[in-house]
Amino acid sequence: MKILIVHAHPEAQSFTAALKDKAIEVLKAQGHEIALSDLYEMNWNPVASADDFLDRENEDYLVYALEQRKAVKNKTIAPDIQAELDKLLWADLVIFSFPIYWFSVPAILKGWFDRVLVSGICYGGKRFYDRGGLVGKKALVMCTLGGREHMFGEGAIHGPLEDMLRPLLRGTLRYVGFDVLAPFVAWHVPYVSDEIRQSYLDECEKIFTNIGEVEFLKFPSMSDFDEQLYPQK
Amino acid sequence: MKILIVHAHPEAQSFTAALKDKAIEVLKAQGHEIALSDLYEMNWNPVASADDFLDRENEDYLVYALEQRKAVKNKTIAPDIQAELDKLLWADLVIFSFPIYWFSVPAILKGWFDRVLVSGICYGGKRFYDRGGLVGKKALVMCTLGGREHMFGEGAIHGPLEDMLRPLLRGTLRYVGFDVLAPFVAWHVPYVSDEIRQSYLDECEKIFTNIGEVEFLKFPSMSDFDEQLYPQK
């Protein structure tokens, strides 16, 4: 498989980075091709703006998604976005590696979604969810967080982690058509012992050795909704 | 009241900006004091990094939240963060004005949360939710989006918008202790008629004229959980 890893952590020696390195090691050993976007190392610009378009459809008023549609057609999107888009379209599987900040991705990664998941290619009109532009590709979220596992789930203080990650798993990754694999989560990372960290690395190795066996999350299908996107009677 | 408006839209003439301007006009007319953080205009840096600390607790290994705790105590946090933090602590009500990008906030605003909601002041240890550091303040989300209203709600294709906004409303704003008001949402904005836009401006005027009457969202209370944050028996 062709695998893109999008990694976002401000500390190169972090445990999040160690998990990413372990994933690369295991996947390479199996003969997969790997591309890495290390957003902090690349000094990735996360801010969507008019500067993202080398030539504007409308110079006087910016509608970001409309400019994206023109720019991807005419190849006038900013080179840093085009480079990421090329990697994204090349990949069969995209792994997102990051620490949870505010029950979500760090801003630098949010801005990768904002700028790279372009209208006209990744989605557009009624091309979303199981009709999204990236149908056939897989995505996997690999994240670390400070909270303990018992603080998440039904009845727990924060509720299920997947509910907190809904705009990412469903609203972003599934929206553009990815088959979304069950996330890999390392809990309580800043506070755990080396033994527990090693057990996370072992779990990471196991998951990436058997990546074909990770279950897919389930989402609604467009075929359950009519042309106006109301539920089918 | 002292009111901070945090606004994030790449187009100064946008309808999102018009709603923000309407809110300011109405609130000023009632005698409220207003501060504005227009993140695009300020060229706000959304990327949390080691540069956010003028003096490091640990120069060799960055744990972002730990550095925050030291830096807010010693007043060694980066000046752009300190300025926003001062406005945040001054405000009784904070309004977040933005277009929905990927069922969430634009990256530039995500990075305001990542950098400004500092550990040690806004939260820390078991000081979160109804024991968060900003208890007593109110927050209101005012957002625009491309989707139609019937695409959100129970049984709708995207489910309830508040479920998509959970990491923001609950995981961020309520986490630090805000009383979170019911969001103000303008649907289908890029595609609607001037009449419908006017009706949104009218609705905005009404809401901000009667800001004391907007209902609060309901969230779990820390008192329902024990010292280890397990549900109380």
UniProtKB/TrEMBL annotation, chains A, B:
Query: GO terms for CC?
Result: cytosol
The keyword Oxidoreductase is annotated on this UniProt entry: yes
Q: Which domain of life is it from?
A: Bacteria
Q: Which GO terms describe its molecular function?
A: NAD(P)H dehydrogenase (quinone) activity
InterPro entries found in the cross-reference section: Flavodoxin_fold, Flavoprotein-like_sf, NAD(P)H_dehydrogenase_qn
Q: Which UniProt keywords apply?
A: Oxidoreductase
Q: Which family does it belong to?
A: Belongs to the NAD(P)H dehydrogenase (quinone) family.
According to UniProt, the name of this protein is Putative NADPH-quinone reductase (Modulator of drug activity B)
| Species this protein is from | Candidatus Terasakiella magnetica
